[in-house]
Amino acid sequence: MQIRRLDIKEQMPLELLLLADPCKEMIETYFARSECYIAEIGEQVVGVYVLLPTRPVTIELVNIAVREEEQGKGIGKQLLRHAIKVAKEKGCKTIEVGTGNSSIGQLALYQKCGFNMVSIEKDYFLKHYPETIYENGIQCRDMVRLSLDLQT
Q1: CATH number of the domain that 82 lies in?
Q2: Around Cβ 71, how many Cβ atoms within 10 Å?
Q3: pTM over cut 0.85
Q4: 97, 113 Cβ separation under 8 angstroms
C-alpha cells in the first residue's frame, strides 16, 4: 500500500469522503482549504484522509475513511499514523480530530493511537447536518473532540 498526497489536478475522492462525513456540502467547505492524502493498493484508492490547518501550530484531521470492503485490515491505523507523521513534519505541535458520539470504532482507534478526549460539542450533528445520522444503532448527536500532543 502506498500513501501519497492527492495532486490538485486529481478529482476529490468524494465517494470515500462521504463514508466518514455524509454531508457533501460540509466536505466541499473544508476540502478546498485542506490537504488530501490517499492510500492506494495498485491502481485502486482504498483510503483517504484530509488535514486542515486550524491555528499556527495546530492541524485537524477532518476526514479519514477506508473503502468498506478494505476495513478491518489496519489501513485506517496506517492512515492515522501517516497523518500524525505529516503533521509533525509540518512543525505542528497538536493534531486534533472530531468524531461522532456514535462512532465507537473510530473513538477506539484514536485513543489506541494516543489521542485523548478533550471536549464534547453537544448537539453538533443536529445543528450542522440536515439528515439524522445513526451508527451502531445510536443517534449521532454530539461531536467528541480528541487531541494528540506531537511534542512528546
Answers
A1: 3.40.630.30
A2: 15
A3: yes
A4: no
